[in-house]
Amino acid sequence: MRSVNQTSSTDFILVGLFVSTKHAVLLYSLSFILFLMALTGNAFLILLIHRESCLHTPMYFFISQLSLMDFMYICVTIPKMLMDQVMGDNTISPLGCGVQMFFYLTLAGAEFFLLAAMAYDRYAAICRPLHYPLLMNQRVCWILVTGCWFLGIVDGLLLTPVTMSFPFCHSRKIMNFFCEAPALLKLSCSSIFLYKTLMYLCCVLMLLVPVSIISTSYGFILHLIHRINSVEGRKKALATCSSHMVVVVLFFGASIYTYMLPRSYHTAEQDMMVSAFYTIITPVLNPLIYSLRNKDVTEALRSMMPLGMRVRKVGNVKT
């Protein structure tokens, strides 16, 4: 453990989730369990989609990329938070802070556009079924995914250097458990008006553009579902979209709250709780949503079960 005197004057101090609570051990244990669940769930979903040929479709290709992003996303922030609590050292160097911010912004930005690409895929599958193999062939899928990663990297390269270039002459305590740009900017002693304008424009690109694509796609889908006479047809169409809609609401809702609402509408403590939600809870929920609510994934899981277990399960059902 480093003493306070040994801490560099340029280092930042991450306040963390465990400082202002009487139940730090319980909260730490819960965070650690959720971290393991996120790693296990997303890694398993990636391997399952890669292994099972019945899941080699555009929709599951995008889901595997979403799981990869969530896997990396939670690894950027949570391990350091957990280690800081154990080691008693909650400092982070400016370089470490910049690296963490770059990867966080890159993965968040890439995920925004990936969710938009997934919505377009559902639109093509439901509204343009005859043209779907042409609209969403392997080449198109790779172009969309590459574009998502590229735009995410642009977001990270654009905002991270500008954020870290500000002079920080106030308290170096970051009111969060990782180097998130809004929390870091509160420490700046210079005008951040131009940067706030730049960040707002980036948020318009990274949030409102994907939201517009998603809204338009689901608008066409809901219009088509309304015209379907068959009750079973409506249920099937809604089932293919419901999982994605849940993920969109969770991820975009938390992000818009943090980055688009004025500061006067939320406190630093509320920001930290929302950050914990979309950095810890969302990566845990995504694989559960896409596996438990998806018949193809559950069938693939059954096919991976040992034959003896399947026979025993069938026997129990018959009895």
CA-atom Rg in angstroms: 22 Å
Order of helices and strands: EHHEHHHEHHHHHH
Q: How many extended strands?
A: 3
**Strand coverage percent:** under 5%
Shape: globular
Major β-sheet annotation: 3 strands, mixed
- Estimate the helix proportion, in percent: over 70%
Terminal residue distance:
60 Å
Number of helices: 11
Low-confidence stretches: 1-6
Mean pLDDT: 81
Structural class: mainly alpha
Strand order of the largest sheet: 2-1-3
Q: Would you kindly provide a brief summary of this structure?
A:
Helix content is 75%, strand content 2%.
Report on the architecture of this protein.
The chain has 319 residues and is mainly alpha-helical. The protein contains eleven helices and three strands. The radius of gyration is 22 Å and the shape is globular.
Characteristic key phrases:
319 residues; 3-stranded mixed sheet; disordered N terminus; mainly alpha
Could you give the topology of this structure?
Elements: E1 12-14, H1 24-51, H2 58-87, E2 91-92, H3 94-127, H4 132-135, H5 138-164, E3 173-174, H6 181-185, H7 193-227, H8 231-259, H9 268-292, H10 295-304, H11 307-318
Parallel strand pairs: 1-3
Antiparallel strand pairs: 1-2
